Amino acid sequence: MKPSIPKGTRDFTPMEMARRNYIFDTIRQVFRLFGYHQIETPSMENLSTLMGKYGEEGDKLLFKIQNSGDFLSGITDEELLGRNHLKLASKFCEKGLRYDLTVPFARFVVMHREELQFPFKRYQIQPVWRADRPQKGRYREFYQCDADVVGSDSLLNEVELIQMVDMVFSRFGIRVAIKMNNRKILTGLAEVIGQSEHITDITVAIDKLDKIGFDGVNAELLSKGLPQEAVDTLQPIIKLTGSNECKLSVIENVLAGSEIGLKGVSESRFILDSIGKCSLKNRFELDLTLARGLSYYTGAIFEVKALDVEMGSISGGGRYDNLTGIFDMPGVSGVGISFGADRIYDVLNQLQLYPDSMTSSTTVLLMNLGEREAAFCLGLLSELRSAGISSELYPDAVKMKKQMSYANACGVRFVVIVGSDELASGKVTLKDMNNGEQKVLTPEELISAIR
Question: What is the pTM (predicted TM-score) of this model?
Fold first, then answer.
């Protein structure tokens, strides 16, 4: 049987891993630059931790883990014959793979509250899993790179996260549009059109605008029970264009009768004014169609789109006031951002933006020309590695052409040749694989020449 891997997952070659590590390292450097601290959480969580935190659609995408042992114990024949998969799964699945890093982080904060200093700034780079339909840019297993602040209500945290996003994509060389909205504005809209009970339906539908278009959004809203009048009232808001201040002024007038809606306008204006003082390198805009379907957002929400590649969101996040309250720790507000490492990987591939310096993990390859020559090279190898220069000795004394081909294929920058002449003189030949230049050097001169 020919081996395969599950749909929506991928293998990564050494070259691909070098590129992925470039992404992780770049993001990690920015996180640390802004004072964030790294944590990790288990790949699996109790289902009681995960269920009900992502809305009805999110719950459907949770990968559930079957209990070990006799997982059917405690289930009656009637229940089995009833084939109610949700009810059955709740009985023989107690754990699930994490859907994102935010809910596990909230659980972490509650469990470790006595050890943490608030406000607590954490970052986390780990894989997550979603039982989604695989397609371009959408996988069932993928990495997230999250940064969150909990224990502070200050909107300066939102401003800082936007600066981090801008810096990360500037370092990658990816031109992006950073979009912002506020869930309070969306709640206010539902309120002023008399459809507060449909706030989840409205946000879920609007969040699909890029995928299904205006007509699709309208059809979904009507199917959820919104009257035609309410749907018509939303149209000019969804289609609103102009400057950020223009959009804010229009929506402020629309939301004049909604206290929570005006609060969202006020928060958005503060963030926009503050960002104006920060000299961002990328476009930052208020987008009133941005909804982000996850139900735990309560304030500012963010999404990042690449400008030069057709791709979904490559980063997103927002403010959540109630998440830790689900775990009996009320009153702790948080705000965070998540980078989709796998989508960033695809964007960098399409735009060919990887630096040449990360194509190889080996800087120097020592040729193996025989037993005596290899023995001499072992001493050189130790000195090179002690100097922090990644080096390797070709293990077999085969033809030099084969060893050179290996160096080329692995992207090695320098080759060191030690033959009978070099052994006699106590020197080595250093070849630069980029330009073909060769130098005869003493072992002491070798390290300086490579540097």
Answer: 0.84
